[in-house]
Each structure stands twice: as structure tokens, then as C-alpha cells.
Amino acid sequence: MSLRPDLELIAGWIAPGSEVLDLGCGDGTLLAHLRDAKRCRGYGVEIADDNVLAATRKRVNVIQADLESGLKMFGDDRFDTVVLSQTLQAMRHTEDILREMARVGRQGIVSFPNFGHWRHVLSLAAGRMPVTPQIPYQWYDTPNVHLCTLRDFEILAAKLGLRVTERVVLANGQPVRFAPSLRATLAVYRFESR
Questions:
Q1: Domain 5-115+147-193 has what CATH class?
Q2: Does the reported pTM lie above 0.90?
Q3: Which residues contact 170 (CB under 8 A, 6 or more apart)?
Q4: Domain residue limits, the chain
């Protein structure tokens, strides 16, 4: 089973035998991989019917729920790791979901498209909202409601008392070290509550 580059990186940050909660788990690919490769256990939370069915077919424990309602069904520190991959930008209540991740998990991992990428900046300078492989929607039909840059996320994490323990930024699936704010298309952060 092949993983997207951000999911491959995320899987590498998760210890074998961990309890994992994958928010917006899609078709359950990450959880199935973690179960098979690392003996991890856990749950996915997904709202889309077709993704819930696909995850179930992969024998992934999935709960159909809207993340905007919070994670009340889980107790404090219930999971070793809580993952939110390429879903943060679609959340209306960004601060709430990050707080909930910190409450129910010992560590959180998020990935999101970097709105500060140079192509996005040029598109905005030319008077148009960007449409790229990472943000493939027109402004009028996008599910993305809160796009951010690397620095924006870091400021919000600090405001919420989340300590970033690791950051990797990617372009074309490869780590970016030089001028990451302009060159990275995707960011992956690992954090803990302070």
C-alpha cells in the first residue's frame, strides 16, 4: 500500500504499538498501514459516506462524525498520537480542533498546504486566487476555509500552548531546507501540549 509523502512522514513519527486517532481519515489508508506495519490500534473519524465505507472495507475502525462537533466521545490523553492530515484548512473552528487534539492525545500531528508558496504569492499578485495541485479548487467552490502559511501556524500553536517538536516541509514529496516559507507546498508539524 503506497502512502502520500506526508502520510509516509507521519507514519515514521508514530511508535510501534501506539494508540492512534486519525481525524478526517479519508479511506483509512494511514490507519491500515499503521495497523499492518507497526501493530498500531485506533480509530478514524470521517464524515463522508464513501470514505467511511472504504475505511470499513480496509478493516479500519471508523466513526462517522463531523469534526466541527469536537471529540467529546474521547477522554483526556486517550491516544498516543492524534493525526489531522490535510484537513486543518477545511476546519471552520481551527483553534477548537487543535485544542481537542491536545486534550485527547499525548502528541498531535498536522499537515496542511502552505499558502505562502511562491506560486500562490504570484497568483495573488496577479489578482487571482491560486489554483494548484495542493489547493485544486476555484475560490467559489473550495472546501478550504482557513489557508495559512508556516509562520501563521506556528503563531497559532504558540497562542494555544502547543509546543512544536518537529517540522518538515515538502515540495514534490521531498524535504525543503532552503527558503521553506516560499518553496514548500506542504507542511507537516508534530506538537505536544506544554
A1: alpha beta
A2: yes
A3: 5, 6, 9, 176, 184, 185, 186, 187, 188
A4: 5-115+147-193
